[in-house]
Amino acid sequence: MTALDRITTDPTVRFGKPCVRGTRISVADVLGLLGSGVSEQDLLDDFPQLSHDDVLACMAYAAERERALVVTALQA
To answer: What CATH class has 3-68?
Structure first.
């Protein structure tokens, strides 16, 4: 299993947002909390259904999406 296998999308769960497998916790939820200064340990304490590997999977998912973005130059 790869890290990205921990992230799933289901149109009936959170409107199809990418979530940690088996939960309703979205990648955006995890990254938003970490980005706002919540420590990983506090995140894991608040969401015991998450593991360290789930947090890493969220970061890997975001990194992969960033790599896949196509940037086009704006013309003035």
So the answer is: mainly alpha
